[in-house]
């Protein structure tokens, strides 16, 4: 365990209770950076601007691990600690926001709103609203905790807010997975009858997979903060990489492989075909916006 920082009391808040791994921080900073760069290119090429929050989350992960690299050079620097703590804590909330929007577009693409537990127009609003609440609570808690120093009241308040925000995330995400499952179960006959070129199933399967990864990561974070700064999970760096870094990178890579921008392309194709069929002869059809609000 690293020595206490100069001038800091023995009972003060300890930033790291282990020796930081420089190679691990570099590897994940690079991998998150590569995946984020690929997402930027894919989103621009497919005009899937609803993935913007996802990209920001990936960049936050990348910069967060750069913060851990900087902390390796000086583990006593508060700015480096705040940088990595907040960004790694908040990045997945932005992943969640994009995942919520993806389900709305799958429902729109398959014309399956009647099978949804929640109206499509409300689905994204409800879940993204919960995600914003989670983001604010975790951000406030992380900020308070990062500046707590030796103040036990501030430390407890910060941890309570973070845990509360994580519980909000778990609640909304759990209900979201149920809503997606209900949609698929109710609409199973309708979905099977769709044309083969409407590849809804692979996108829904990736949505389930990434949701499970985020749920596991959130459960890990809840346990981590419930144990406290001197708990077992926060005293071993390997847990951060196994239950956070690897899982969140897997979320990003899965979305690289099966990019939701394909849904936007399919939606645009359906709308263009509809306009061509419905427009009077000689009229010029207007391009459809694949990023219509859901």
From TrEMBL:
InterPro entries: RTA1 (IPR007568)
Any Gene Ontology CC annotation: membrane
Keyword annotations of the record: Membrane, Transmembrane, Transmembrane helix
Transmembrane segments: 20-41, 48-66, 86-110, 122-140, 160-185, 206-226, 238-258
Intracellular or extracellular location(s): Membrane
Superkingdom of this protein's organism: Eukaryota
Topology class, membrane: Multi-pass membrane protein
Signal sequence range: none
PANTHER family, sorted: PROTEIN RTA1-RELATED
Protein name: RTA1 like protein
Organism listed in the record: Sporormia fimetaria CBS 119925
Organism placement in taxonomy: Eukaryota, Fungi, Dikarya, Ascomycota, Pezizomycotina
């Amino acid at each position: 365990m690293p020595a206490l920082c100069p001038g800091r009391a023995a009972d003060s808040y300890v930033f790291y209770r282990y020796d930081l791994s420089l190679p691990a921080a570099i590897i994940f900073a690079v991998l998150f950076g590569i995946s984020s760069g690929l997402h930027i290119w894919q989103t621009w090429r497919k005009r899937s601007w609803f993935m913007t929050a996802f990209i920001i989350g990936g960049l936050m992960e990348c910069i967060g691990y750069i913060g851990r690299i900087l902390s390796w050079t000086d583990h006593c620097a508060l700015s480096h600690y705040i940088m990595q703590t907040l960004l790694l804590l908040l990045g997945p909330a932005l992943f969640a926001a994009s995942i919520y929007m993806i389900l709305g577009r799958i429902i729109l693409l398959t014309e399956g709103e009647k099978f949804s537990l929640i109206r499509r127009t409300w689905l994204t609003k409800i879940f993204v609203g919960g995600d914003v609440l989670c983001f604010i609570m975790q951000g406030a808690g992380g900020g308070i905790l990062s500046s707590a120093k030796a103040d036990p009241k501030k430390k407890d308040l910060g941890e309570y807010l973070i845990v509360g925000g994580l519980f909000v995330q778990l609640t909304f995400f759990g209900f979201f997975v149920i809503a997606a499952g209900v949609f698929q179960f109710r609409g199973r006959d309708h979905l099977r009858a769709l044309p083969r070129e409407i590849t809804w199933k692979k996108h829904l399967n990736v949505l389930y997979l990434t949701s499970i990864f985020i749920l596991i990561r959130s459960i890990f974070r809840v346990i981590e903060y419930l144990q406290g700064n001197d708990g077992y999970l926060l005293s071993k760096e390997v847990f951060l990489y196994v239950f956070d870094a690897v899982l969140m990178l897997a979320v990003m890579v899965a979305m690289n492989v099966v990019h939701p921008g394909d849904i936007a392309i399919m939606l645009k194709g359906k709308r263009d075909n509809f306009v061509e069929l419905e427009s009077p002869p000689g009229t010029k059809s207007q391009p459809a916006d694949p990023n219509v609000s859901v």
